[in-house]
Structures are given as structure tokens and as C-alpha cells.
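re: that complex we talked abt at group meeting.

here r the seqs, copy pasted straight from the sheet so there may be weird spacing, ignore it
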Amino acid sequence: MIIQSLAFYLFSIVTVASAVMVISARNPVHSVLFLILAFFNSAGLFVLLGAEFLAMILVVVYVGAVAVLFMFVVMMLDINFTALREGFLQYLPLGGLIGLVLLLELAVILGGWIIAPGAAERAAAPTPAIDSVHNTEALGQLIYTNYIYFFQAAGMVLLVAMIGAIVLTHRTRPGVRKQKISEQVAREDSIEMRDMPSGGGI
Amino acid sequence: MPDLVPALPEIFLAVMSMALLMAGVFQKEENAGRSVSYLAIATLVVTIAIVGVVADGRASTFGGAFVTDGFAVYVKGLILIATAAAVLMSREYLEQHGIFRFEFPVLMVLAALGMLMMVSANDLISLYLGIELQSLSLYVIASFQRDTTRSAEAGLKYFVLGALSSGLLLYGISLVYGFSGSTNFDALAQLFQAGESPVGVTVGLVFIIAGLAFKVSAVPFHMWTPDVYEGAPTPVTAFFAVAPKIAAMALFVRVMVGAFGDLGDQWQQVIIFISIASMVLGAFAAINQTNIKRLMAYSSIGHMGYALIGLAVAGGAGNAEARADGVSGILIYLAIYMFMNVGAFACILQMRRNGRMVEGIGDLAGLSKSNPAMAMVLAIFMFSMAGIPPLAGFFGKLYIFLAAIEAELFALAIIGVLASVVGAVYYIRIVKVMYFDAPEEGFDGPVSMEMKAVLVVTGVVTLFFFVWPLPILDGAGLATAALLPG
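got the structure back, here u go
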């Protein structure tokens, strides 16, 4: 039990600390690396909760794809991050104040910690018992049955994202030399027929 | 297998949006835009028919995540009409600016799909997914004119602030779920029947209100509206001002009245505040505007303030009759708002000089001489928005204010009347500019057939609403009865 709590505190502290570093690191590449660290530690928290599948997905999708994409964006685009950060100190007092007020409010709610009766049972109701099926199977059973509507709706959202990305960035530029293998191979001057005298070379 | 019949309009629209995409891809580029946009209008019209045919009392499906009832049918009708009108009005503009690509109508159809899902949402997750589907399509079409900085800026601004509001909304949803254990509206309503809730739910509720207030652009979450309206291509602005507002307002009503109806004393004061703030800001901030699209943005902020009065009334505990009047007041207001705004934007889309759009209010000077018919139609819409009887806009405000008085929210009614008097100043100034200022050069003619049709239909509805108001009043009555049984 104690190891679990220790692991929980370790993972949460590192998650929060690296999240702070993501927004405060000077070098954007470091920010992305800290983001990856935060993802890994959140995956650790998922494992502690018994949600191994989500933990693995988090690592595969977020670390493997999203963070690498971020890395590409940060390294390929020439963005002046110091200029972006210019107003930071100026707005810090106001932003800090709002953050503090929100934090106090949250403390009040969590301090009260009154939950509607039966909330935990209601929330757990749709899921099958955790000791009878492993959680990949449990997720599969729910997503494609009870939550099929949400699954399909999320699919439509992704379709819109795809259309949007193409609409906003795709341009047919004139003068682009595209590779058309069949045409290039069949080009007339690429093949030459010669009569060879027998016994001689070219 | 879940029952698919209640969701038939959405399924049809989703499948057709993909079919339209295919139709666009496999056509010559020159005529793809035009033919897909006509097909999109046909799709939307057929969807209206399906919504009408499927309508049969209250039916919920997908484990209670999706619901269709009289309320949904009424609002879906408005949304589909508004979207079809927006697609129809956009053709000319897009062709003239050389950006008529077939993805535009497809994105409009997808946005309409998101809006229908919002209206039918009966679960906080389906609410969120509907909003995202709608918003994502809107972000893209806001920056559709991607070669102009203004349009790209409008899209980016809308996207960043929209993402922020989605964050607020999701945070609120997570609090509500965490403290109550359910995201289903029916389950939540049952849980809070006694009018009591854990404090965490109340805080979550406030975050949800903030997220939704952003979507209806109510003060203090309105900052994006003028910039986005000004920067987006004009037909897109016309679309933004109508369909998404109707959908978000209907969703607002369904969440507040449907899921948290018995917690009225906890959210009513928040709604009263944002309603008053929207009305006052909408009235005063618009006075100094010189750009007509910005003016329409402030005008829509003000109009949402008036509609929110109805929601504040619906939050009053006890007086069931007043609550019903509040909800039906909103529905009547939204219908009238749709006709007025579609018409006004059809006029604004005609403001072209030497092949270029002009957007200054001063450019309308002397329109009564150069194009008397259009000046008259625009004057009708402006008088109606100002709330001058016997035009439609007057009745919209009348029902809302009557409901407020019935619920004894006198302060709200009085401030509403005063704000609409102040608001009348800038609406009537446009009429003054058109009729009494020294004439400028006329606009490019001629007005195309589809624009004429839109102008005639919206103009007739606005002008003669009082002659035969029953279709809208009855529809709103039925819709309210579906939402507030008994």
C-alpha cells in the first residue's frame, strides 16, 4: 500500500513540476521534452489506477505521435519565442491573482467535499466488474455499444479537422515538377535505338 | 442495437456530407463549388422533411445520450432553414472572390450536423461533441478566405478563444460529473429534484454557463464577436450571426431547464447578470461603430441579451406558467431574429462598388435614391430590430418582456426596454443615412435571383408577422410543452 502511495506522489509531483517547466522553459525544445516527461508520468498515474490500456495509449499516441509532431513544428518553424513571451511579466500579477482566486475557490469546494449520494456507484454502473474482464476488453465492450454515439460523433469531429487542414493549407501551385514515372520512362529522348555493327561497340 | 429512428436526420446529414465531399472531388474544379452547394441546399431541405416525419413525441436513444422532442424539432427546423439560406446567399460572394471551393458548402452541412446534435443532446458528453463539431467547422469557414490577413486572423482568434471556452466547459462538466456521478440530463434532473446540490456541482454549473455564454457571445464572453464578424467573409458572418446562435441558445435552454431546472435559484442570478450586461453593452457599444459588420456583431450581442431574459424567467422556481412563457418567448424571439438577420445580411451582401465589398455605414448614404427597393427592405429590417411595432421584432421583444413581468423580474424588463430604446438609435441612424444623407455612388447591380428570393421571403415575414403569427407561436408553444411537461 505504502509503495503505491509513494509512487502516486512521485508521479504527481513530477507531472506538476514538468508541466510548470513546459510553460516556463526558455528553450522551446526543452518545453517539448518536459511535455513528454509529463505524459510519461501521467501514464504512470493511469497504471496506478488500474487503467493499463489508457496508460499505453497515452504513451503511444501522445509521446509517440503528438509530441514528436510538436518537436518538428518547434524545430522547423522559425518562431521568435522570446517575442511571444514579452508581455508575460507585465500580465503576471493579474494572471497570478486570478489563478490564486480560482485556487482558493477550488480549495473551498474540495474542503467541503460533499458528493451527491450514490455518485460513485452511478459513475461505475456501466463498467463491467474489474476483476472479471481486463480493461482493454471492458473499454471495447463499452465504446462500441453504450457509447457508439459518442464514438461516431468523435469520428465526425476528426473528419472535420481533416477537411479543415486540407482546405486551409492545400494549394495547387503552378510550375511544380511532379514525378510521373510512366511519362518519364516513356519519354522519347530517354531511349535511343542504334544499329550496331556486328563485332563492334558504340 | 440502439434505435436509430430518432437520430435519422443526423445520420442522413452525416452520410450526405460525405457523399457531397465525394461529389465535389470527382467533378471538374470550375463547377464543383456551384453544384455541391445546390446539392447541399437540397440535402438540408430533405433533412427538414425528415425531421418533420420522424417527429413523434419524445424519443431518446443511444442509452439516453440523444433525445428528440417537440423542442428539438422546432429548433432544428430553424437551424436548417438558416443554414440553407446561408449556403444560398454565399454563392455569389464566393464566386466573385474566386474562393468558391466545394468544401465550403460541405463544411456548412457539417456545422449544421453539429448544431442538430447540440439541440438533441441529452448528455453532457453529446453536448460537448456537438459543440466541437459545430465550432470546428465554423473556425475553418471563418478563415476560408485564407489569402487575406483579416479572414485568417478572424479564424485564428475564434479558434484560440473557442478552445479556451471549450476548456472552461469541459472543466465544468468534469466537476458536475465528479460530484454527481452522472452526465445524463434525465439522471441529473432526477438527482437535483429537491433543489439541492453539492457545492461542487454549483461551481461546475457556473463553468458550464461560462462556456455556453461564450458560444452565444453574451457579455462578458463577447470579446471575440466583433473581430470575428468583421474579419470573416461576409456570407460566413451572415451564417455566424444566425444558425450557431440559435443552436447555442437552444442548447443553453435545454441544459439549464432540462438538467438543472430545479436548481434555478443557483443559476438564475448568473443569467440575469449576463443578460443585463449583454443588453446594455449591445446597445451602447454599437453607437460609435462605422463598420456595418461590427455593428451587426454588437446588435447580435444585444439580441442574445434579450433572449437570455427568457432563460432567466425559466429559472424562476414556482410559477410554472411564467417559466413556460419564458421558454416560448425565447423560441419566438429566435425565429424572428433568424428572419430579420438573414434579411439584413442579404442586404449587406449587396454592398458592392466596382466589384469590391464596402462595409462602412457611410457607404449606404442616399441608397433611397440609387436603389429605393433595397433601401426600403433594409429599413424594414432595421425598424424591426429596433422593435418598432407592428414589425416582427417588436413582438419578439413583447413576449420576452411580458414573461419577465409575469415572473416579477421587473428590473430585467425595465432595463431591457431602456436598452432597446438606446439600441434604436443606431438602427434608425442607418435608416437616416439611407434616406437623408447626400447620395453616394450606387451599388453594383443587378441583384441576383436567389438574393431577391431571400429578401422577399424574410421581408414579408418581418413585415406581416402580425397578420398571421400562428405558425411560429403554435410551434413555440408545442416546443415549450415538450421541454416543460405539466
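couple things i noticed - Chain A touches chain B at residues 105, 108-109, 112, 114-116, 118-123, 146-150, 152-154, 156-157, 159-161, 163-164, 166-168 (CB under 8 Å). Residues 84-112 of chain A form one domain.
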